[in-house]
Amino acid sequence: MNKEKLKTKKILVGICGIGNGHINRQICGIKVLLKNNYEVLVATESCKIQTIKDTFKNVKVIELNIPWIVCNENGFDFKETLNKYNDIDLFKKFLEFGNKIEQSLNGKPDLIISDYEPNVAQYAYATCTPLITMEQQSKFLYLEELKLKEYSIKEEIYRINYFFPKFDKKIISSFFPIDIKNNKIVQVSPIITEIKRKKIKKDFIIVYLSPYSDSDKYDKLINILGEIKNINFKVYSKNYETYINRFNFINVEFSNFNKNFKKDISQGSALITTGGHQLISEAISIELPLYVIPLNTYEQHYNAHMVNYYNLGSNNVLTKDNIIDFISKRELYRNNIKKYKDKYYTKKWENTFIDTVKELLNHK
C-alpha cells in the first residue's frame, strides 16, 4: 500500500485573537478535524493559547503576533499603522514564525486554515500550501455598502484584500443570507457550538460587554438597567470587578467570563450585546431576542442593522425607553427568530467544512 496515503495529514489553523468569535468558531472546526484523524497545529495570540490548551489536550499551540491595521473612512490608514509598528521588525517575526511551524510539525503542513489570521496566510503563499480562509468578514466583498453613520465598508474590504489576496477555498459563515456565485466560495450557516435551550426565566436578561468599547457607553447602559427593577440583569465583562466597585444596583449582577455564560444565555429571556457575529449567531440558534449595541466598526453596525432588518431584536439608540420597549417585545422577537432560524439555519456546516478540507487535501 502507498505509504503516502497512510501518512497522517497535518493541518495548520491560524486564529485571530481579537474577541472570542474567531476562537469559538475554530474550536468547532478543530473538533471536526480531530474526529477525522488529522493532526492539528494551532497558531494564535498569547491571550487565546490557554483556551486551546484547556479545550484540546493533544493539540500543539504556537504563539504569534497579529498586526492591527488602522483604518478610517477612506480605508487603510498607512500613517497611523506605521506609528503602531515603527519599532517592530515584522519580517523577522514572520521568519521566526515559519521556523516554529516547521519545528512543531517536523515539516510543512498539508493544508492551512485561517480565521482572520494573516500570518498563516502569508506562510501558505510562501510555501504554496493550500489555503482555506474562514473569516466571516469576507462577506463584505460581496455585499453592497449600506450607509451606517460614519462607518465605511472600505475598512473591511481593504483589510481582507491586504491580508488574504488569494485563497483556494473560502468558507463564509453568516447568520443572514448572502447570494454569492463563485465556485471557490461556500456560504454556510453559523459555525457555532450547540447550546441546549433551557426553561426561560422571564425576569432574567443577560448582558455582554466587550472589552473593545467605550466605557462611558457601558456606564450609561448599567445605570439604565439599574432603574428597571422588575428585571434581573447579569452583566458579563472582563472588567467586572471595576463595575462591582462602582455600581450597587440590587437587580444587576456582574461576572467575569466563565463556563456559566452559556448556561445563563440558555435560560435568559433576552440578550443585550455588542454586535459580534458569533454571539449573535448563538443567540439566534436558541431563539434569544437581541438588543444590539455595536462597537465602532462597520461590521458590527452592519450586524446590528441585519438584526433589526429581520426583526430579530432591536438596534435602537441606547435610552431607557428603548430598552423597556425591547423588553416588552421579547415574545414577538422570539417568534420571529424561530421562523427565521427554521428558514436559514437548516444546512449543517460540518459536512460542507470537512468535504472542503478533503477536496483540497486530495488535490494536493
Structure description:
With 364 residues, the chain is of the alpha/beta class. It folds into two domains: 3-189 and 347-363, Rossmann fold; 204-344, 3-Layer(aba) Sandwich (Rossmann fold). It has helices spanning 3-6, 21-35, 46-55, 78-85, 90-105, 118-127, 154-163, 215-227, 240-246, 260-267, 277-285, 298-309, 320-328, 330-344, 349-363, and strands spanning 10-15, 39-44, 60-63, 71-72, 75-76, 111-115, 131-133, 169-173, 185-188, 204-209, 232-237, 252-255, 271-273, 290-292, 313-314. Helix 6 (118-127) links the parallel strand 6 and strand 7. The longest helix is centred in the first third of the chain and has 16 residues, at 90-105.
Secondary structure layout plus pairing:
Blueprint lengths: L2 H4 L3 E6 L5 H15 L3 E6 L1 H10 L4 E4 L7 E2 L2 E2 L1 H8 L4 H16 L5 E5 L2 H10 L3 E3 L20 H10 L5 E5 L11 E4 L15 E6 L5 H13 L4 E6 L2 H7 L5 E4 L4 H8 L3 E3 L3 H9 L4 E3 L5 H12 L3 E2 L5 H9 L1 H15 L4 H15 L1
Parallel strand pairs: 1-2, 1-6, 2-3, 6-7, 7-8, 8-9, 10-11, 10-13, 11-12, 13-14, 14-15
Antiparallel strand pairs: 4-5
Give the tally of structural domains. 2
Name the CATH superfamily classification of the largest domain.
Answer: Glycogen Phosphorylase B
In N-to-C order, the SSE pattern is HEHEHEEEHHEHEHEEEHEHEHEHEHEHHH
Q: What's the rounded overall pLDDT mean?
A: 92
Radius of gyration of CA atoms, rounded to a whole number: 21 Å
The oligomeric state of the chains shown is single chain
Going across the biggest sheet, name each strand in turn: 3-2-1-6-7-8-9
**Which sheet architecture does the biggest sheet show?**
7 strands, parallel
Shape: globular
Unreliable residue stretches: none
Strand content: 15-25%
Count the DSSP helices. Answer: 15
Q: State the helicity in percent bands.
A: 40-55%
- Name of the CATH first level of the largest domain: Alpha Beta
* Count of extended strands: 15
Span from first to last CA?
Answer: 19 Å
CATH topology of the largest domain: Rossmann fold
Structural class: alpha/beta
- CATH architecture of the largest domain, please? 3-Layer(aba) Sandwich
